[in-house]
Structures are given as C-alpha cells and as structure tokens.
Amino acid sequence: MNAPAFPKRRILVVDDEPFVCDAVRMMLKFDGHEVEIAKDGQEALAKFELGKFDLVITDFAMPNMKGDELAAAIKARAPNQPVILITAYTEMLQSTKNPLKGIDFVISKPFLLEDLRRAIAKTTSAPA
Fold first, then answer.
1. Bond prior to 79 in cis (omega within 30° of 0)
2. Which of 39, 54, 89, 125 gives the lowest tally of CB atoms within 10 Å of its CB?
3. Does position 10 have pLDDT exceeding 50, yes or no?
4. Closest residue by Cα to residue 93 from 128, 61, 55
C-alpha cells in the first residue's frame, strides 16, 4: 500500500530523546517530508535561524527549555510559524488552565502516524 499523497513539508523535530526523534523522523519521512532534528531548544533555535521550516514539532519536557518556551521563542521570531507540541503530560497541562502560548496543536504520547497527519493537516492548511 502506498503512502497517502500529502504536500511535502520541511519539518523541524525537537526532542531530547534520540529514539523519539528517530521514530518521528521515520513516520514523517514515510509521507515524504524533509526532516531536520534538534536535541534541545537551543539547537532548535539555531537551526530555525538558519533555515525555513513549514512546521516545528517539539517535545514538552526537555532540559533547559521546555517545549512551550521554545514555541514562544519561535513565535517571537516568526509569529505565523506552526508549532505542534508532543507530550505525555496532556492532562496535567490541560488541568492547569494555562493556555500553552505559541502552541497550535497538542499530540498526546503515545501517538500514531495518523495523529501526526491530522496535526500537520490542521496546522499547515494541508488537506486531511
């Protein structure tokens, strides 16, 4: 079975866990996306400064800079940049009633390729 036809995107994936980065990269490459990896917020910001991305997908719980802090820093540089947050802490984050500034979509861990596709479609105006 062939992968569904999606517009190809240039995506920056940020996670301090290498196996998560590899898994997300593999899922995204399955749909033909070009994927760049960063291991933390600082590396992500450096890569973001150097290149244009259609989408940023970041983990929430990372050392030194949380995913929402990274999203806020990215939105300060590029207000229309879509940012997806992947987290195992969805319920905790929702219970605080504090909106996650700079986050356009939240995906709960564990997640499937379909969850990624839905988030990409909603945040980048791609057909679902």
1. no
2. 125
3. yes
4. 61
